[in-house]
Design the sequence.
């Protein structure tokens, strides 16, 4: 306790340090620029509908009319974009989609009620990105059905250029029924047997060879 | 001395008032959009139909297939061992409890991979782990496992191995036999029957090592 009395103004110094700490904390604390604004239940309701899916027929019409109410964003990698892209579309690679500058411009487009249409290799490559943006409150973001390859009508090997990717293309139950049961036809078609020419090896003579 | 105390108390009050302007507390029960965007780029959030077939046949206990289509579609056809959680019920309490267990690899599937990806997106936002999507969904399942395309004769050996596996898996899932419009199972296998290379004739000379 003797030392306690020897430092003058100790209370003020301690207090100043404390205040400094708190002020520094206030300054460092940042509100995240992008966060989810839709609750999970709201998102579920949004995702259940088709409101954020731009059908191919509509997209073709928009492109033909050069509708200013739609803005196409290509989320593929730059090298794929360079190889060929929709005329007038902007390239924002998937990983940069949540950059502050892009989010800001998306918000501005939303204020002007312009729709942002994400295009990519196929629908499943833009689907998650589009709904991620929708969940952050960008109600104007849409996913293009089919994707760029589909729109351009090119036969891209990588993409799955099929319409209505979520529709059942086959009648699965009928397909399983069509397969005859094992008891009906037991034709296990194995590979045709190949006779292996087995050469009898000549008996070695007494001498051992090599090591 | 008394004045100092009053001043200090005042400053503390001011700091306390500053709390009002603090941003909302972060929701730690959910992932941030940036974290999800990072995992969007990872290819291993998908499970291929081959991998799924392999694991179903092996009876992998750590695999749980979740059918997110509606219950009528599930009743008509489903993958072996799958449970049905229709997409509209994915946020129900008991279904969330199932996913929260985290003891298995949860593989969402639907007709394509659009609906299952939506389920994946919602559930990974809610911090569930080990969630996967069956790539291409049931449509791709039919095209690869139930009706595997016959590889070109010039294909790699690995492609033929994959084809052989798919034919075997097809037999496993459908019960043997041919589907209408299929090539015969043995046909391509016979084509590529390997003729062993005959040994060069003539006696081998003593050659040491």
Sequence:
């Amino acid at each position: 306790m003797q030392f306690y009395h020897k430092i003058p103004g100790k209370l003020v110094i301690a207090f100043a340090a404390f205040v400094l700490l708190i002020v520094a904390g206030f300054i460092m604390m940042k509100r995240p620029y992008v966060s989810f604004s839709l609750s999970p239940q709201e998102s579920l309701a949004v995702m259940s509908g088709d409101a954020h899916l731009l059908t191919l027929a509509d997209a073709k019409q928009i492109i033909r009319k050069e509708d200013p109410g739609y803005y196409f964003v290509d989320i593929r990698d730059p090298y794929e974009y360079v190889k060929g892209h929709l005329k007038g579309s902007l390239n924002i690679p998937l990983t940069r989609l949540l950059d502050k500058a892009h989010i800001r411009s998306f918000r501005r487009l939303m204020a002007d009620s312009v729709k942002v249409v994400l295009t990519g290799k196929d629908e499943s490559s833009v689907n998650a990105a589009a709904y991620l943006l929708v969940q952050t409150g960008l109600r104007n973001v849409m996913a293009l059905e089919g994707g760029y390859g589909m729109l351009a009508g090119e036969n891209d090997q990588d993409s799955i250029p099929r319409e209505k990717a979520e529709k059942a293309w086959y009648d699965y139950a009928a397909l399983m029924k069509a397969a005859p049961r094992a008891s009906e036809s037991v034709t296990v078609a194995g590979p045709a047997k190949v006779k292996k020419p087995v050469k009898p090896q000549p008996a070695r003579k007494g001498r051992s060879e090599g090591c | 001395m008394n004045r100092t105390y009053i001043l200090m108390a005042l400053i503390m009050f001011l700091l306390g008032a500053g709390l009002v302007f603090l941003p909302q507390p972060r929701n730690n029960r959910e992932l941030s959009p940036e974290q999800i965007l990072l995992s969007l780029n990872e290819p291993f959030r998908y499970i291929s139909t081959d991998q799924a077939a392999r694991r179903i046949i092996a009876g992998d206990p750590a695999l749980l297939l979740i059918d997110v289509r509606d219950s009528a579609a599930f009743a008509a056809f489903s993958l072996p061992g799958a449970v049905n959680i229709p997409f509209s019920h994915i946020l129900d309490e008991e279904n969330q409890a199932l996913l929260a267990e985290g003891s298995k690899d949860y593989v969402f599937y639907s007709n394509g991979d659009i609906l299952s990806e939506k389920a994946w997106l919602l559930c990974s936002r809610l911090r569930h782990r080990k969630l996967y999507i069956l790539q291409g969904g049931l449509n791709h399942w039919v095209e690869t496992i139930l009706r595997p395309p016959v590889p070109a004769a010039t294909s790699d050996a690995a492609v033929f191995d994959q084809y052989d596996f798919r034919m075997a898996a097809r037999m496993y899932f459908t019960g043997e036999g041919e589907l209408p419009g299929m090539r015969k199972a043995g046909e391509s296998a016979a084509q590529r029957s390997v003729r062993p290379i005959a040994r060069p004739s003539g006696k081998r000379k003593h050659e040491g090592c």
Observations:
- Helices of chain A lie at 10-28, 40-48, 56-65, 78-83, 100-111, 123-135, 148-152, 172-178.
- The first strand of chain A starts at residue 53 and ends at 54.
